[in-house]
Amino acid sequence: MAGARGHLVDAYCHGVLPGDLGIGAFEARLPGAVAPRTTLFDSPAGFAVRRWCPPLLGLEPHSSPARYLARRRELGAYEAARLLLRGTGIGAYLVDTGEPGDLTPPKELGAAGGAAAYEIVRLEPLAQQVADTSGTVDGFLANLAESVHGAALSAVGFSCAAEPLADGSAPAHGPPGPVEVRAAAAYWLGTRPVGERPADPVLLRHLLWHAVAAGLPLVLRHRQDGPGPAAAAGFLRATEGLGTDVVLLPGSAHEDAAARLAADLPHVYLAIGTDPSGVLSRAPFGKVLYAGSAVGLPELYVTGARGFLAALDRLVGERVAAGEWSAADGQRVAALVGEGNARRVYRLPAADADRFRHGR
Length: 360
What we know:
By secondary structure, the chain is α/β, with parallel strands linked by helices. The protein has two domains: 2-17 and 90-357, Metal-dependent hydrolases (TIM Barrel, Alpha-Beta Barrel); 21-75, no CATH class. It has 15 helices and eight strands. The chain has an eight-stranded parallel beta sheet. It is globular and about 65 Å long.
């Protein structure tokens, strides 16, 4: 089934670290919390790295961490990242540029990976940058609106934390009123240290509605320990019919709730980086996108894509073998989830898909 999908579109990711890493710095970037006197190389993520990444750098699978990292240093950070990213099967990256740290911007990530790359603008650092250069409340609010709409000219989408939509102090289904916004802005501007990102629910809801007005797809990021997508249901229902698609990034803890909302609301989608079998039993096939959410290590792009594609292949193969789907239907579902849905939602040029698929 893999050949029917073409290239993956990674609908949500971040840049990679540009320099060489020692074993401790590398391990610290693997997901999970290490127990005392153990190593994160002894984890699902660590084993996946050792299985899939060494062959891309010219080593045998399951190489030891020390041997693998020595080879990585021998090649140099850029060449290692280039070989790893080009082994993912990813043909387009949608890069949230708001993650802290010295990470490669979209253009450099795409060049290393031999793929198209597009920017998703994170609203919180955008507001922080505007606040750092605005002297008054009026100036801040005017510059904020201008910056959001200016960013929409070159980006393919926006992202924002979803938690403000669960705030119980005011209705979250519609935009906050101007008096409420001015009060929140005045307080934040008067008390914030330079460089602080906004956390006030009123300001963040104000930002979200600016993004809705700009018309680009909006990614709602949900914390694993947060209230989940159900808390944003009022906002999602209020934005129906306004022309802005909303992509839920729920994490594994909230995939069920996100799938239900995607099934109920025509403009709501969900992006996942895990086994898609659960959500594809609850959400329409045209509503599910792949999002690896990798940050820092190019190895995480490899393991995320390999794991997702393997799970998708198993799902399609089982349904076809059981006679539930035809082979053509299975290929179509795989193509939608792996690439087609993201290209449609984010309005990505078809020319990029053809160009990178044929290595030009």
